[in-house]
Design a protein that fits this description.
Number of strands: 2
InterPro entries: Arv1
Family: Belongs to the ARV1 family.
Number of domains: 2
Structural class: mainly alpha
GO biological process, one term: sphingolipid metabolic process
Subcellular location: Endoplasmic reticulum membrane
Shape: globular
Protein name: Protein ARV
Distance between the termini: 48 Å
Order of helices and strands: HEEHHHHHHHH
Number of helices: 9
Strand content: under 5%
Length: 242
């Protein structure tokens, strides 16, 4: 139950105070019979993690608002392993949107099987392009952070945690689904807002994971965008629609 999970995570030193990012040995103490007492951080004298009492919907709302406390709770004090599936689903959403825009620009309505197979290939191609663009974006971030803060990127676990944080922080791409369903004249503006929101989430994820100031994460994201746009330009030179 909760007690076993708490002891296991404490043994790994996985707990963090969501207020000051200080290490903690436990999130709460179980006095049995349903009586729990939230641990107090020794550094800031505040509850280590108030979100353990909150409903998941409240936590999600706080994460959408990009609150650092909610990000620390999700990244350090929970065992969420959906980052891989979430990444694939977000890429599928992005690939579908690009594929839909490509079909809208095509005037060919021939129902021949060859045309249908070509359209299916276009979807797989868009998925591959979206995957390569996101990979190049992450590589740009990792290179910049490794160059600017090598002392924070020494261990393999640091890279894995940062990658997990970046993958989870791309959840904003799920908003592409309603943007497609509720298509209207302002769809390009909505897509721009979604892109900005995802970048803000990425910045907050980097800041929380490595305990950095607000400037360095944006610096890393800027270089990530440069590398991503470089990949886009390469595809365009090849003659692919992106």
């Amino acid at each position: 139950g909760r007690g076993v999970l708490s002891r296991a995570m404490a043994a790994l030193g996985a707990y963090r105070c969501i207020e000051c990012n200080g290490e903690a040995t436990e999130l709460y103490r179980d006095y049995r019979r349903g009586v729990l007492r939230i641990s107090i951080c020794k550094s800031c004298q505040k509850p280590v993690d108030k979100y353990i009492e909150y409903d998941p919907v409240i936590i999600l709302i706080n994460a959408v608002l990009c609150k650092a406390q909610a990000y620390r709770h999700i990244l350090f004090n929970t065992k969420i392993n959906i980052h891989g599936k979430l990444c694939v689903f977000c890429l599928l959403c992005e690939a579908y949107l690009r594929w839909l825009q490509l079909q809208d620009s095509s005037q060919n309505t021939d129902p021949d099987d060859l045309i249908r197979y070509a359209k299916e290939w276009d979807f797989y191609r868009m998925f591959g392009i979206a995957s390569l663009e996101q990979t190049s974006f992450f590589i740009g971030i990792f290179i910049t952070l490794w160059w600017m803060t090598p002392e924070m990127m020494k261990r393999k676990s640091d890279f894995i945690l940062l990658l997990k944080a970046l993958l989870l922080s791309t959840y904003g791409k799920l908003l592409l689904i309603p943007a497609v369903i509720w298509e209207h004249d302002y769809t390009p503006l909505c897509l721009a807002f979604i892109k900005v929101f995802v970048l803000i989430s990425n910045s907050q994820a980097i800041r929380v994971t490595l305990n950095l100031n607000r400037i360095l994460p944006w610096f890393a994201i800027f270089f990530g965008l440069i590398l991503e746009n470089g990949v886009v330009c390469l595809f365009q030179k090849i003659g692919w629609d992106v």
